[in-house]
Amino acid sequence: MPKTSNDAFFWGLFSAGGTVAAILVPIHLFLFALAFPLGWLQEPTYSTLMDIVRLPLVRVYLFVLCALPLFHWAHRFRFTLYDGLQIKHLNEAIFVGCYGSAIVGTAVAGWLLWTI
Amino acid sequence: MDTHPTNPLPHYTEYHPRWYRQRVSTYWWLGSWPYVRFILRELSSLAVAFFVALTLAQIYALGQGAQVYAELQEWLRQPVVLALNVVVLLFAVFHTLTWFAAAPKAMAVRMRGKRVPEWAVAAPHYAAWMAASAFVTWFLLRG
Amino acid sequence: MAETITLDVTRYSPEHDHKPVLQLFEVPLRPEWVILDALNYIKDKVDGSLTFRWSCRMGVCGSCGMMVNGEPKLTCATFLHKYEGRAVRVEPLRYFPVVRDLVTEISDFMRKLKRAKPWLIRRTEKPLAEGEYLQTPEQLDTYKQFSMCINCTLCYAACPVYGLDSEFIGPAALALAQRYNLDSRDQGAEERMLTLAHPDGVWGCTFVGECTSVCPKHVDPAGAIQQYKLKAAMHWVKSLLKPGG
């Protein structure tokens, strides 16, 4: 089989992240950034949230919820910079900046969810 | 005329017309509504990244204790922050809607030799969205 | 209906112009006329030097593509009366160099089309004695839509990635490659892969989707490209699991 471009890998991450974001981000945002602060719905107490976030399955869920959408953003933003700002000649810097940030964010998420 | 048995054609310079090349403007994306919608869709990825940052901040605050978490909650109640989050939520929903419109295009699903219509491929996505949202809400509210 | 309509047409003569200018023409507004009829009227009766491409005048040859009020259109398939009440701006197709007036230089597209290898590739030829390659209607249906392309390059004029990146192979070439990849008689998918699964191939596409919107033959090149991306991504994963092929 011929060896083809690694862009396939980044596109795959972009797709997975986009799907996770499409399905889960709206409700999470609605609850934590609007409904709970504004009191539209009963906010879970601090101790309840701590109990929930410490569940192993929830740690994994939150990790995926943070990591994959970050790579979705990285890939999409990389191409937005190419086309929107027409700075494709800064190819390498953009590549490292975008995916690098996603890797850092993923590492932060991993560390936070491991240690909480 | 400069003719010769081995060079029967007269000497002349080939004419090549100067092509005009229009440079694409930095504001090409303002040129039509489809282009504007496209760039807005692409910018929705910033809303997604913002959500991740917010979520990580919340997890960090949880780990720092009830006081710190309460301070974060207070920050989220500031009118400016609320307004920002409304915009972010709108972009997040925009991402969802455009994503579900795009996904069927990438999947040429065929059943019994005929192509499944796009709405039929999009429908399970919407169902999953509704189901996941209901589940997350229930899970967080049951206490 | 009004008697006449104004056309604002791009003029560019490389002999003495540095850049194109727009020239106004008043043409009759006949209910059955298309933009191409108006252009031919100008060439016949007003200014014989107006230069443009056309051929079949019925939407199958792909020659008469131009920008009409900023949108890529086949001028033989666009009715004049739709623009009644306003000026009609006719310009050469976007994102291609302009040779003269409304004529674009499309050899970049022709080169890229060739790279897609839009012909049946066989690893093993069937001997003549075994007869024709048979194909069921279902097999035909998998690629038929992509075979309707008339190489009119309207999709290239609609694609901002093609406009911004001179290396991008472009919608029609990618859709036609996929047309042959999906053809049951073809054995060339692997051969086309290096061209398609490449940053200048499908990975350069950001799914703006305008190519599909403007296509006069409803080829849906954007769909072809996204389908290929999915296939290429799955192939990439498989190639990871089988190192060495």
Which CATH C-level class of chain A is it?
Answer: Mainly Alpha
Please provide the ordered H/E string of secondary-structure elements of chain C: EEHEEEEEHHHHHHHH
Estimate what percentage of residues of chain C fall within beta strands: 5-15%
Tell me what the CATH architecture of chain A is: Up-down Bundle
CATH superfamily (homologous) name of chain A: Fumarate reductase/succinate dehydrogenase, transmembrane subunit
H/I helix tally of chain A: 4
What structural class do the secondary elements of chain C suggest? alpha+beta
Helical residues, percent of chain C: 25-40%
Q: Which sheet architecture does the biggest sheet of chain A show?
A: none
What is the terminal separation of chain A in angstroms? 45 Å
- The largest beta-sheet of chain C arranges its strands as 2-1-5-3-4
Q: Main interface pair?
A: A-B, 53 and 51 residues
Number of folding domains of chain A? 1
**Strand tally of chain C, please?**
7
Oligomer: heterotrimer
Task: Kindly list the characteristics that best describe this protein.
heterotrimer, A: 116 residues, 3 helical TM bundles of succinate and fumarate reductases, 4 helices, C: alpha+beta, Ubiquitin-like (UB roll), Fumarate Reductase Iron-sulfur Protein, Chain B, domain 2, 2 domains, five-stranded mixed β-sheet, two-stranded antiparallel sheet, 9 helices, elongated
Brief synopsis:
Chain A is mainly alpha-helical.
Which helices and strands appear, and what pairs or packs with what?
The complex is a heterotrimer of chains A (116), B (143) and C (245).
Chain A: H1 7-35, H2 46-54, H3 56-84, H4 91-115
Helix pairs in contact in A: 1-3, 3-4
Chain B: H1 33-64, H2 66-76, H3 79-106, E1 110-111, E2 114-115, H4 118-141
Antiparallel strand pairs in B: 1-2
Chain C: E1 4-11, E2 21-28, H1 35-46, E3 65-68, E4 71-74, E5 88-91, E6 98-100, E7 103-104, H2 107-115, H3 137-147, H4 154-158, H5 160-164, H6 171-181, H7 189-196, H8 210-214, H9 221-241
Parallel strand pairs in C: 1-5
Antiparallel strand pairs in C: 1-2, 3-4, 3-5, 6-7
How would you explain this protein's 3D organization?
The complex is a heterotrimer of chains A (116), B (143) and C (245). Chain A is mainly α. Chain A has one domain: 3 helical TM bundles of succinate and fumarate reductases. Helices cover 79% and strands 0% of the residues of chain A. In chain A, helix 1 crosses helix 3 and helix 3 (56-84) runs antiparallel to helix 4. Chain B has a domain at 107-143. Helices cover 66% and strands 3% of the residues of chain B. Chain B contains 4 helices and 2 strands. Chain B has helices spanning 33-64, 66-76, 79-106, 118-141, and strands at residues 110-111, 114-115. In chain B, helix 1 (33-64) packs antiparallel against helix 2 (66-76), helix 1 packs across helix 3 (79-106) and helix 3 packs antiparallel against helix 4 (118-141). Chain B starts with 32 loop residues before the first helix and ends with a helix. Chain C folds into 2 domains: 4-104, Beta-grasp domain (Ubiquitin-like (UB roll), Roll), CATH 3.10.20.30; 107-241, Fumarate Reductase Iron-sulfur Protein, Chain B, domain 2. Chain C is built from 9 helices and 7 strands. Chain C has helices at 35-46, 107-115, 137-147, 154-158, 160-164, 171-181, 189-196, 210-214, 221-241, and strands at residues 4-11, 21-28, 65-68, 71-74, 88-91, 98-100, 103-104. In chain C, strand 3 (65-68) and strand 4 (71-74) form a beta hairpin. The longest helix of chain C is centred in the last third of the chain and has 21 residues, at 221-241. Chain C is elongated. Chains in contact: A-B, A-C, B-C. At the A-B interface, helix 1, helix 2, helix 3 and helix 4 of A face helix 1, helix 2, helix 3 and helix 4 of B.
